[in-house]
Amino acid sequence: MVPPLLIVDSYFSYIVTYSIELEGVLYNMERFFLYDDVEESKTRFVSFTGKKLRYDLAIMQSSRFFGKVLVLDMQMGRFAIIGPDDVEEPGYLEHVFNKTEEEAEDLRDYLNELLA
Prior knowledge:
Strand 6 (69-73) and strand 7 (78-82) form a beta hairpin. The radius of gyration is 20 Å and the shape is elongated. A four-stranded antiparallel sheet has the order 4-5-6-7. Strands 1-2-3 form a three-stranded antiparallel sheet, with no helix packed on it. The chain has helices spanning 84-88, 92-96, 101-115, and strands at 5-8, 11-22, 25-33, 42-49, 54-61, 69-73, 78-82. It has 116 residues and is of the alpha+beta class. The chain folds into two domains: 1-37; 42-115, no CATH class.
């Protein structure tokens, strides 16, 4: 079955209908997609040691983030979309990466250098 194509606010939206069988029962499923895009991105993998911790980060740049970067802490499984203003926001890095103020200091210093 070909999904219908709907135009919503200049973005392509569509509905996909499919069937799945689990334990002998056939389920008809429907999923509404707001978008499903593929785009080029640039990813930088960085590992460094700070005063308290080791940091293993993946930093992704994409036009989708409007000048900000997606920072992934690969050790802790946390991530955030961060711009220069977010780095300077008191308590922000501590909150999103679940770090103490002292632990986040090294991360803040690195991100300030990166985003400058």
